[in-house]
Write a sequence for this structure.
């Protein structure tokens, strides 16, 4: 990826960063930040849009370069803001990414009706079902639980025995099938006049995979440790 | 159909070999044939491109995948039809561009011959040596929707061995989920699309 080599700081101009790493444009809408950023710095924009600058910068840097995780401390990040970001990503995947991938699969099967190609759509539908279930679990069980922990005046709310460790177990590998699909398209499905559509499909899959990887990293390596700390503090 | 074609027929049975070439010649007097009973001496020919079509009984490979692969890569420029003369496993004719069956009428034989003299060779007819014969057996049964226990019973091996094969298949192909392995198996003619419908995908 064309990421910037250095760490992104809050006094940097947003436009410069977005021009140097266009994949970061995607992150803006998850914080309800709009384009047309003029000459403003990151801290200007965050302040203006009422966005938590620390969380924004952390996630921005992580998408720019995943090794940022080991370089910086996330201990003081606001859990509520992280959850809001994750929820917005879920919506983006469901409303935009999945329909686009399915459209591209259909595009590929119109130009090449071989049976194995027709099976791809069903394969992806199955995968999507798993991911949707996973998102629903996070949105409806895990996130509300975490938010209830933060609700200090309401400590008794967690009457179930649910803890974040259950979330960790539930968090199985969603990347495996995505990887299989890429492998089939790159290596095993014989070509037959479908190269343009196949390329489009692969590009949409790879973009999603990269985004999902950082998403999972935020959940596993930032959210879970933060909640574990909170659980200890509350008990 | 007044073309000239040079066809190699490899078939152990004299009746079948001569019968087939007669059927084709009656309609196509200009066609010439090389007739063999086995694959042994066909590799000696220097120019492999002399044949326009090859018709071979898969039995001559003695169920040896290695021999079949060698044959297919040796004649990689030529369409190869399978000549199916006995009860057989449907996967037996994988990799052939088409098949002739003993109960085919002379018309359908001629149609098949004509078809494969004119259509372009399918580019993906490459013998795949990635998986061993046993791994192919396991993959086929797996892709047809059998459980590990059923596969073990079918192949007379332990479930533990099935699990090991399954792991090795995923490792070799880089494909982990069963659903994706089914697609791999269909794309590589290891199973028929209709077989895969039985499986859970």
């Amino acid at each position: 990826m064309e990421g910037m080599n250095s760490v992104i700081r809050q006094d940097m101009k947003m436009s410069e960063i977005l021009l140097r790493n266009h994949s970061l444009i995607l992150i803006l809408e998850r914080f309800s930040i709009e384009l047309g950023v003029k000459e403003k710095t990151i801290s200007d924009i965050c302040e203006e849009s009422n966005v938590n600058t620390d969380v924004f910068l952390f996630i921005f840097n992580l998408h720019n370069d995943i090794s940022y995780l080991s370089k910086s401390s996330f201990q003081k990040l606001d859990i509520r803001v992280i959850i809001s970001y994750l929820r917005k990503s879920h919506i983006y995947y469901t409303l935009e990414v999945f329909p686009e991938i399915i459209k591209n699969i259909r595009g590929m099967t119109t130009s090449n009706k071989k049976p194995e190609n027709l099976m791809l759509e069903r394969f992806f539908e199955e995968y999507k079902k798993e991911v949707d279930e996973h998102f629903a679990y996070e949105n409806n069980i895990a996130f509300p639980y975490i938010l209830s922990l933060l609700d200090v005046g309401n400590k008794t709310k967690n009457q179930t025995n649910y803890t974040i460790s259950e979330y960790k177990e539930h968090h199985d590998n969603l990347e495996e099938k995505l990887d299989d699909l890429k492998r089939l398209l790159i290596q095993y499905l014989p070509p037959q006049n479908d190269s343009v559509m196949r390329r489009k499909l692969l590009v949409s899959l790879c973009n999603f995979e990269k985004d999902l990887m950082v998403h999972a990293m935020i959940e596993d390596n930032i959210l879970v440790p933060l909640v574990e700390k909170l659980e200890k503090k509350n008990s | 159909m007044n073309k000239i074609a040079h066809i190699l027929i490899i078939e152990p049975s004299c009746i079948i070999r001569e019968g087939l070439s007669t059927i084709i010649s009656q309609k196509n007097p200009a066609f010439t044939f090389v007739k063999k009973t086995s694959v042994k001496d066909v590799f000696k020919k220097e120019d492999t491109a002399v044949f326009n079509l090859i018709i071979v009984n898969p039995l001559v490979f003695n169920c040896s995948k290695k021999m079949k692969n060698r044959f297919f890569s040796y004649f990689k420029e030529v369409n190869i039809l399978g000549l199916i003369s006995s009860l057989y496993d449907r996967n037996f004719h994988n990799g052939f561009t088409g098949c002739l069956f003993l109960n085919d009428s002379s018309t359908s034989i001629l149609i098949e011959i004509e078809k494969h003299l004119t259509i372009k060779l399918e580019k993906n007819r490459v013998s795949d040596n990635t998986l061993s014969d046993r791994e192919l057996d396991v993959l086929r049964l797996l892709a047809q929707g059998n459980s590990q226990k059923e596969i073990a019973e079918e192949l007379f091996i332990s479930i533990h061995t099935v699990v090991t094969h399954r792991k090795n298949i995923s490792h070799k192909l880089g494909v982990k989920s069963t659903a994706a392995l089914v697609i791999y198996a269909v794309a590589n003619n290891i199973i028929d699309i209709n077989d895969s419908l039985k499986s859970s995908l």
Remarks:
- Residues 14-71 of chain A form one domain.
- Chain A touches chain B through 20 residues (CB under 8 Å).
- The mean pLDDT of chain A is 88.
- The radius of gyration of chain A is 20 Å.
